[in-house]
Amino acid sequence: MTGRALAQPWQFDGRTELAAATDALRAHGLEPSAELVDAFIEMLLMELRERAGEMAVGGHVLAGADAALTALGAVAGVRQSVLTGNVHPLAVLKMELFGLDHHLDFRLGAYGGDAYERADLPAHAFERTERHLGYRHGGADTVIVGDTLRDVATAQAAGARVVPVATGTTSTAKLRAAGADVVLPDLADTRAVIQAITGTL
Predict the structure, then answer these.
(1) Helix H or strand E segment including 133
(2) How far apart are CA 6 and CA 9, in angstroms?
(3) Domains in the chain, number
(4) Per-residue pLDDT reduced to its tens digit, 180-194
(5) Could you tell me the pLDDT band of residue 82, with boundaries at 50, 70 and 90?
(6) Which of 40, 79, 112, 182 could form a disulfide with 85 if both were Cys (CB 3.0 to 4.6 A apart)?
(7) Domain for residue 5, yes or no?
């Protein structure tokens, strides 16, 4: 796209795709204009769609994830979506590949193309909830589940409950020290997941 090879590794680590693409372009001496960032992200999407089969073979659903989503979906008043650094089409693709998409209402989420800073994403989700459901969610009735310090910081900025799961690269100790409400070791214990998210521990 730019005539330059990718000389430095792609750094995502929970940032929005807008931030990651902007930083990647700057790291290679390119001015991240809106047009160039959009083109970069579009090429990324093309590449990942072409590699969807590889993702399906090389990836897996965490133990207990489907059961937890199923159980939460049965809780009165609960609406499940995604708040992710991935752009919308990529978030949907990942969920579809691993059979989790039917649990989620993607209209209500927030995505890596909505904002540069991850902490700005909840406001987009709240606005979409109001638009599609007729009432506006806020931090007080929102729970963010993730596995990075950015997830914790995003929830705190929105005034939301945060339940990180230590299945990523961030340790339980670091997630707890960041101020998480409850840290789960994994999603295997459905009852513990429900209790942590609903605040009944």
Answers:
(1) helix 121-133
(2) 7
(3) 2
(4) 999 999 999 999 999
(5) very high
(6) 112
(7) no
